[in-house]
Amino acid sequence: MAGFDKVVNSYADAMAGLEDGMTVIAGGFGLCGIPENLIVEIQRMGVRDLTIVSNNCGVDGFGLGLLLEDKQIRKMVSSYVGENALFEKQLIEGELEVELTPQGTLAEKMRAGGAGIPAFYTATGYGTPIAEGKEVREFDGRPYILEEAIRGDFAIIKGWKADRYGNVMYRHTAQNFNPMAATAGKITVVEVEEIVEPGELDPTQIHTPGIYVDRLIQGVFEKRIEQRTVRSS
Questions:
Q1: Which residues does UniProt call coiled coil (predicted)?
Q2: How far apart are CA 230 and CA 57, in angstroms?
């Protein structure tokens, strides 16, 4: 796949241009497939009043939870937030605005944003507080609500392998929200475990084409397990 070199050599270069008040779309599900080093860089930068769009907000002390600790997030658009005590505290105390979104709807909002589709109708959420203030139309006798697409100033993504042109592969369940999120950023930054030369990846195995990727960096990852379940033998 033809393209040009997307590799940057520092996390400061990877997140250059991120400013207060911007919207950041983050891939990941729980702690699986999260761009953990890019999040650390955002924390280091100290930017504030961010809107973060992500399935969840990490856990206390790791992932997006780091940005909560420094009160860098003004608003979260998420589908699940139950693993983070600080999130609950900031929400109850009015320090954090939260827009809860059904999980499938959140994924489709990202996909639509990347596809240039401004809005779509879905039955999910009709008759619940999710639908309040949203347009309702009926199709084949069933009511649907209008949901608007999401675009971010930045999208931060965790991949497995990529070539220098930014063609990305994800590993197993670490795909989760990453492919949709990668399409929906004005600037999409991907961190991966391994960067290879163009032509080394099987084109049929590429999940995110390099056309969507603006910056690429190789990182070292902790890969924490969110909940470990063991049994005695």
A1: none
A2: 25
Q: Which amino acid is it at 182?
A: A
Kindly tell me if the per-residue pLDDT of 116 is higher than 80: yes
For residue 173, what are the domain limits? 11-119+149-218
Asked whether residue 214 carries a pLDDT value surpassing 80, the answer given is: yes
- DSSP H helical segments within 1-101, as ranges? 11-14, 36-45, 65-69, 85-92
Judge whether 42 lies within some domain.
yes
Q: Which residues, 6 or more positions from 89, have their beta carbon under 8 angstroms from its beta carbon?
A: none
Q: Can you give the CATH number for the domain in which 89 is found?
A: 3.40.1080.10
pLDDT-based confidence at 1, cuts 50/70/90? Answer: very low
Total tally of structural domains belonging to the chain? 1
Measured distance CA(181)–CA(185) in Å, rounded: 7
40 within 8 A of 199, measured Cβ to Cβ: no
Neighbours of 152 (CB within 10 A): 23
The 3 state secondary structure assigned to 21-36 is CCEEEECCECCECCCH
Structure tokens that stand for 65 in this block: 């939870």
162-199 pLDDT, tens digit each: 999 999 999 999 999 999 999 999 999 999 999 999 99
